[in-house]
Design a protein that fits this description.
single chain, alpha/beta, 5-stranded mixed β-sheet, 5 strands, rod-shaped
Amino acid sequence: MPKPESFPIEKIFVPTKQKKALKPETVAEIAESMLDIGQQTPISVSRDGDRLVLVEGLHRLEACKALGETTILGVLVTAELAQHKPLLAERPEVEAERLKMARLKQLRLEKEAADASMAALKGVRQAEAPRTRPAKGLRDNPKASPARTAKPAPKTLSDWITQQKGSGGRY
């Protein structure tokens, strides 16, 4: 197989027949993947006079365009090889690989969502004020009389007797 090289994107001609097979969702997936791990598979082009003609890799080419790239990694194939080579999309092993990658991407997205959800939940738990119990002897009862809850608890027997005399109680 020829060695991959960098080609200027604007010099690559895409045949009309290939343009009809363009799937925007696939372009978006490939562009996202390229942002994460870069271009892993080169496109194939053949030379037709002064221009380059795309043989395979339409979605990769469009993904690079969408990302604002000016060049793309590709291999130059002969015109004979380009005519006899089946389109990449027609090969069953390529479709199986594409489905596998789509499943892996879905699993990665689900894991990221679960991780984000757990992180958000931990953040909410940490932001909540810790629940504390009122000090012993204090009542949190709205029906209790204000005079009764306002008095401090007696520390000694003498304090208790004094408190009872003040409230009209018997000792």
